[in-house]
Amino acid sequence: MNYIPKITLYEPKDIRILVAFLLKKIGGMTKEELLCCTVDKEYVRYFDMICCLIEMEEMQLVKCERQDDNEMYYPTAKSNYLAIELADQLPMMLREDVLYCAKKITSRMRLESSVKCEIITLDNGYQLYIRFLNETGGADLMELKIFAPTLESAKSMEKKFFDNPAGAYRGVLNSFIQGYLSVSEKEIQETLDETNTDLF
User: Fold this and answer.
1) What phi, psi does 180 have (nearest 5°)?
2) How far apart are CA 36 and CA 39, in angstroms?
């Protein structure tokens, strides 16, 4: 197994490039999300990252929107230019790892704001209770209650759900709309046959 040396960025310029690269790829990230995929992975020290974000805001390299205790950072034209021109100066392994981590963190955190999971204790086991929230208000879009004999199996189901929530949602809906809103292979082939007939 090859040894991969640990990379930590110390230069403010390099940290700015990394933040600009992430924001260009993701679009917008909270301070917590930025810290999770840089500081928590020891690519950047905490104090250096905080100073960098303050400086980038002053330099108009990021746009920060504050709501209550949450700070959301967005890219600017300047930061996008910085990312395009200089991102290649950072090690590829670091860029790929941080971006992969950022995509996982942001998708999970945003998913958790629209889907609520709860494990409920029953007399004879557990129940995984999943609610798909209606983000425009009103009743939930869908609720699922799945029995699990043990707490471990309930947690395992919850993890599998969060690994592919769209697949779970689509699978349930397709079982109800099959034959009504979906197009069959036969219909596709008939349309192709009619098109070929018209051409000749």
Assistant:
1) -110, -50
2) 6
